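WARN retry 2 of 3 for item q-0093 after timeout on previous attempt; input resubmitted unchanged.
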Amino acid sequence: MWKLALLLCLGMSLIPAGDAAGKMAQSHGVAPGFVAWSRFVIGAVLVLPFLPRAEFARSFDKRLWLRAALIAGGITSILTALSRIPLADAFAGLFVGPLVSVLLCALLLGEKVSAVRWGLVALGFAGVMLVVRPSGEMNPFALFAVLAGLFYGGFLAASRWLAGHYPPLTLLASQLAMAAVLTLPFGLWLWPVFNWQVAGLLALSGLCSMGGNLTLIHAYKQASAAQVAPFVYVQLLAATGLGYVLFADVPTPLTWAGMALIAAAGIVSARLPAPRSPDRG
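OK item q-0093 returned
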């Protein structure tokens, strides 16, 4: 489990790095919807050549389309939020996702979640609230961050649901290619003025996102949603650090306290025995 924990920490740091690159691209006049579409296209172009031809027949599975729609909605929503609010603030709304994921896996997949694990997820969420505290008037764009969190929770649960049915490469390729199809209108209608800087930021956004999600898919092959959930909060730690380096967002003492809670939840979760899950056909 410790090797998985280290891998998750690395992979979960890549996701906010991709969003930070997307936010920077928006500062050059690129619309959030186009950033989302380009991210999926870049990832699909890189991954699809490695997918066995026999796997392409699985594109008719409605479950894969549902999962792709969830990630498409989540990425588009979080990028829309990032167009008007700081990186860490956006991730605060996003992090209702792990709680939603554990709840959906318990209700729909029959996973047994102990009181201790529920407590650890809640502890991680309390850390999130310390890192990003509501202040001032509500920015309407913060609602897009919360919407992204709801989409993200559904996506995490769907990843756990399908992890035993498809290899990781198939799941990654399907989410990228199908989401690219679903967000194609954004790509056609919101085409920006390109230069090398914009192209580089969009490429970085796509590569980081793909790497992070591949890590997550592998994690769901080896662990339950309850085990993975606390480590997903590493994204917020990375978002806070990137916000400081790239956007001059200075962490406060309460931010460091929140980070300690999040880290504690992940470490304790890694030491607990794996919960039992019922067989799923």
